[in-house]
Please model this.
Amino acid sequence: MMLNNMLSLLRQELVLSVLIFLLLFIKLGKDRSQASLSVIVNIALLINLLAGLWNMGEGELFSGMFHTNATIVFEKSILNLAVLLISMQSYSWLKSHDQVIEFYLLLFTSLLGMQFMISSGNMLMFYLGLEMSTIPLAAAANFDLTNRRSSEAAMKLIISSAFASGILLMGISFIYGTTGTLLFDALPSKLTGNPLQMFAFILFISGFAFKISAVPFHLWTADVYEGAPVAVTSFLSVVSKGAVIFVFVSVLYKVFQPLSHAWYLIISVLSVATILVGNLFALRQDNLKRFLAFSSIAQVGFILIGILSGDHQGAVSVIYFILIYVFSNLAAFGVISLVSALTGKEQITDYKHFYKTNPLLAWVLTIALFSLAGVPPTAGFFGKFFLLTAGASKGNYLLIAVAALNMVISFFYYLKVVKAMFMDENETPIEKLEIPAVSKLALYICVAGIILVGLASVVYEHINSLSI
Amino acid sequence: MNLSLLVIFPLVTALAVLLSKGLKQVRGFALLGSLTQLGLAGWLLKSYQAERASGNLTTNLFESNTPWFTSPLINYHIGVDGIAIAMILLTSVVVVAGILVSWSMEKMSKEYFFLLVLLSMGAYGFFISLDLFTMFFFLEIAVIPKFLLIGVWGSGDKVKSAMKLALMLMGGSALVFVGLLGIYYNVHSFETAEVIRVGLTSGVQKFFFPFAFIGFGIFAAMFPFHTWVPDGHASAPTAASMFLAGISMKLGGYGCLRMVSLMPDAANYYSWIIIILATIAIIYGAFATMMQTDLKYINAYSSISHCGFVILGIGMMNKTSMNGAVIQMVSHGLMTALFFAAIGMIYSRTHTRMVAQLGGLLKAMPFISTVFVIAGLCSLGLPGFSGFVAEMTVFMGSWQNPDTMYRFATVLSGASIVVTAVYILRATGRAIMGPISDEHALLADATWNEKLASVLLIAAILVIGIAPFLMNQLIVPSTDILFEHIGKAITIK
Model:
């Protein structure tokens, strides 16, 4: 019975673990071509994704340490989908790389950590998952082995994560000290809001803010995003961020519900600051990866506004937005990753007149940027609309007005890239690129997602029907 | 009839354009699609009149309501009243004319026609929406094509103009969005009918009305948010200018009208501000036009002045003035599209739009010159053309308001017509009459497609100008219904 339970509830984690061991064995055996390896990995990821589609009910394992339900499975599937897309997109980059297996090993270990983190029912389990997801990423950030910036990025990532983890851990220990429990279920009734608990809570939120790079804890983001290989950058900005936000929502809504008056204020301030700073810095970037780093900071600000609502609708809009964010951001990163792998160019100025030579990639990037900017009919519009609608449910319309006007600022810098691609003249545009079929497929999936997830309300309604 | 066809046809046309190859196929599909659309609009008008004649007095006809999202509650709810049909007819006429005018667009023709069709789809969707979310959705769909159309195919300082236009319109829709959220959380519905039925308290209206009204006002070139108009119109390629002035600015006016009907208390409360802003726009627009030397700038600034009449008519808050506002929207849409078409034809031949460098064009291209003169005469409100009917109705309505300040505003606005006459006659005199320069003497007259586009627009202008009752029959019953609700708010005060 226990074994059956484990098999069904842990199915996503198990598929990943098996995959990790399989890769280890392949590594020990004789050398394989990168092409066949990619096929194996991508098929395994697809199986992993499909494993999430079939509903196996909810339950707990390891005396409450691990729990799962339809929502959590859905969240994990979003992450699995993102990793599958990233793996498909980095095909051209990995082709020229020697340590493909190690790269996948690191990525999957990190993903496994995230899945345990999302499923955690206990502060310790949560912390364990978080660390398991962060440390491999630092190694992965260093994967442009000959590039000094890549090592610098890895260094910055590991130091700032260690710092954030330290703060988080301190918060957790204070919480344990004042309540005597680490179980999520038992915590709410013991939270009274006394000063030490408030202090612990602030430490806790700061740790989270580091991980999702909310202002003022965002300083590491741009450098790490710029230095790391594109595949790792997209993993950091989509998967890693998404996973932490999923946990953030459930922890805030369930565990810290008694302190909701406190976190409402904290998060209002954080959200406005994050949107504003992210936008203002994004305005001045010329490196596309840095540009997307700051734009993703601004996006996190919008997510925080959705979180503000504190009810079912807020959680739904956040999960929905992350799904959309996966498609839009990965479409953007997909194009950048291709161009970067084939030509090494990453500046916005390099993309001048890009449309003339690569119309397909230019359209994909344009649609992705429009989705990030929240322009209909792309899904980004629906995502932002629902986030802000949820955020307005508490009646703080001025906050919403500030956020809505910030969308105009963000619109400016997204349009700047579109302008470069379509309108600026350039004597030496990026030449016509040969796109591998796998990467092309990944881009098509992203574009289909961007268009369908919004217009077809089924997806939203499905998330809405989950109990959160 | 099924109103969704009005959105589906442009979508199909856009896809056909994307899949076709070469200029000939592309423009063929675009024209076919827009003509079908014109036919649909005509059929819509016919079946609407038949329904009304058979005694159907519901506010909106041909309604259909499909649930879209459940929480927040969003329905794809469509339906039309007379005002919406007037706007749809305007859109379909301008779209056909715009596509005919860009018949020989060689540069990236596929993308060009695709964006034009997409823009028209946004407008159709906007006019048939009865749900505020859908309305907002289509409003924003119409923004992006403008940015690309101006930025890629424009002339002059095109990128800056495109950016300015896109950002200001996005700012407008951000404000509209806040207004909509306010309405939603007080009524728990995005349905316009539901908002009117439940009603918003006066305090709520006063807080959210400025957001929504200014938001739509930016689209309608309301002073002081009109600055995107001159640059945007001047830089845009001909068809895009026609679409901008003929369709896009009408989205704003129509939106303002709907917002007034949703929040009549606040509209009544703020009406003096609206009137002042509209009057400034009318006077300032007219005088600014006097100073322009570029034909496109002349028409763009005069658009600010003419759109001021729309806002004035709405702000005066009575039946006649609102009728006038609607007629002015249609009339200005047609007239300004004709004007831009004529300017585009002149520019494509002479390669200059500077009045000083033109002259005596009547000798070389009699047809285009005549079109230009007709557009000018309509613009200055000559009886027999639609401009006269529209402005006359607005003034008749405004004068009904006995308040001194309102009367003063009416008189001032009326006086602007003299200024209009000055700049129109001056531009016409210099560019069309007089001696012709040698290099312009041999230029060819309009081609068949340009003639067709002009004739279509002129015919529409004349129909409204000579038989205004046709227009009145269409819109007056609907403004009556609209005003029933607004009127209550005024009497309460």
